[in-house]
Amino acid sequence: MNKKDDKRVHFYHITLSNGELLENIRIEGSLEWNLSGIAAHLVAVEDPDGRKIVLSKYHIVKAELIKVED
After folding, report:
1. Nearest in space to 62 (alpha carbons), one of 7, 10, 3, 22
2. What does the pLDDT look like over 20-52, one tens digit per residue?
3. What is the pLDDT of residue 5?
4. From CA 27, how far away is CA 66, in angstroms rounded?
5. CA-to-CA distance for 5 and 56, rounded, in angstroms?
6. Is CATH 2.30.30 what the domain over 3-69 is classified as, yes or no?
């Protein structure tokens, strides 16, 4: 499967540059794929309550993949 065709839901624990930890953040496709390319600076994700969050790749210090669901 091509990475761009991967529509599985990925769950991450994401640490931001200010030290804040965002747990169980979900995103369609991998974080790497969503942030690849010159123009990709922002990525829309969902928190466990279903609220949308837009993250800048420059504020993500660490992203730990927790699980992948079909």
Report:
1. 22
2. 999 999 999 999 888 887 778 999 999 999 999
3. 64
4. 12
5. 23
6. yes
